[in-house]
Amino acid sequence: MATRIRLKKIGRKNRPFYRVVVMDSRQRRDGAAIEELGWYNPIAKDKENNFELKEERIMHWLQLGAQPSDITHKLMKRSGIAMKWHLMKQGLDEKAIEKEMQKLNLRREAQVKEKLEAVEKESKKKAEEPVAEAAAEKIETKESKKEEVKEKTDEPVEEKIEKVAGAVAGKAEEKNEAEKTDEEVKVEKTEEKTEKAESKEDKPGDKVEEVKVEKTKEKEVTEEKPVKDEKKVEKTEKVTTKKSTPKEKTEEKPSAKEAKSKDEAKDDK
Q1: Conformation bin of residue 9: beta by default, left when phi > 0, alpha when psi is -120 to 50
Q2: Statement to judge: residues 79 and 121 lie in one domain
Q3: 41 pLDDT higher than 80
Q4: Are residues 111 and 36 in the same domain?
Q5: Does residue 27 form part of some domain?
Q6: Beta strands 15-24 and 35-40: pairing type?
Q7: Per-residue pLDDT band at 254 (split at 50, 70, 90)
Q8: Domain enclosing residue 130, as ranges
Q9: Is residue 206 domain-resident?
Q10: Average pLDDT over residues 161-185
Q11: How many CB atoms lie within 10 A of CB 29?
């Protein structure tokens, strides 16, 4: 009878769980098993301890000619059973097999330590990344500020002198303009004061004379007005006489009809 060491599925849907069993190769997957040799849980979080095997019983069935399946062979490698079976087939003693197994265990421990160290380094890097980024940003800001200060300090001396001279000249011009405006205001005030003083110094007699002169001018204007009215009247009379003259002429000359009537009357006579 050909026997195989393989997995037998147990558990519910989407939650697989397997048993390591020895059964006839002609049996179906979930058929009757000859013997149970361990278990395997592929969903377990701890991947290093997600299986368990009975070493003595597996070695017994291997000596009887049982053939392990691919997955069971991987599990045997992880547990060291496959290495031990390989050494036994080469014909080594138990002491030599034990030495080789100790070396294998030391290697595996070193590998586990390396994995743990790598995981710790990755976690540290992830934790240090934001801190490093913040430090780098601070350094960049400091460098940028230093460069700005250097650019400001590295300006040529001539430009600085020109800037200072321009500022001083501008201030001096502003002062001169302010002084000029103050002087103009003072001059205006003095002129106003002098005008007021002159107006106060004028005597009342002068004012009386001015009033008399104004009255005489008004009289002359009133006298001139009737003269002008007389001239206008004369002009109107002349115009009327001119208009009346043609009427008289017309009265003296008889009309043509009257002349004809007179001639006819003469003929009748």
Answers
A1: beta
A2: no
A3: yes
A4: no
A5: yes
A6: antiparallel
A7: low
A8: 93-149
A9: no
A10: 74
A11: 9
- 3-state SS record for 148-195: HHHHHHCCCHHHHHHHHHHHHHHHHHHHHHHHHHHHHHHHHHHHHHHH
Could you give phi then psi for residue 70, rounded to 5 degrees? Answer: -60, -45
pLDDT in tens, 104-152: 888 888 888 888 888 888 888 888 777 777 777 778 787 777 777 666 6
Q: Residue 44 — left, alpha, or beta (φ > 0 → left; ψ -120 to 50 → alpha)?
A: beta
CATH of the domain at 33: 3.30.1320.10
How high is the pLDDT of residue 76? 92
Does one domain contain both 27 and 58? yes
User: 11 with 69, same domain?
Assistant: yes
Q: Which tokens is 207 given?
A: 């004012």
What mean pLDDT value characterizes the chain?
A: 75
Whether residues 103 and 118 share a domain: the answer is yes
Report the domain count for the chain: 2
pTM of the predicted structure, to 2 decimals: 0.44
What is the token pair recorded at 74? Answer: 């991987």
Q: Which of 96, 37, 32, 100 is nearest to 64 (CA)?
A: 37
Distance CA 225, CA 231 (A): 10
Task: State whether 75 and 97 are in the same domain.
Answer: no
Domain membership flag for residue 162:
no
> The tokens 């849980």 sit on which residue?
41
Tell me: do 104 and 78 sit in the same domain.
no
Distances (CA, A) of 39 to 30, 45, 75, 105, 246: 14, 15, 10, 22, 162
Position 14 in a domain: yes
Amino acid at the residue 1: M
Q: Categorize the per-residue pLDDT at 205 as very low, low, confident or very high, splitting at 50, 70 and 90.
A: very low
